[in-house]
Amino acid sequence: MVTKLGIKHDSKHLANIAEHFDVIPQTENDNEHIRQVHPGDHTKKLSLQTIQQLNSSLSAFLRYLNYPH
What we know:
Blueprint: H1 11-21, H2 42-45, H3 48-57, H4 59-64
């Protein structure tokens, strides 16, 4: 993300941050900040109408980051 945005960064520092936060929980806990982390999980929790509205309103951002929408 920082490369895409052109932000100067220390790769070792970013790797340490990523390692610290690279957590995949065994089970989802609604009381925890870290929940289900697998791509596409939102399709199980949001209606098709909500996903379409989000894709529409965020389309420029999604396109910029090359996310399919």
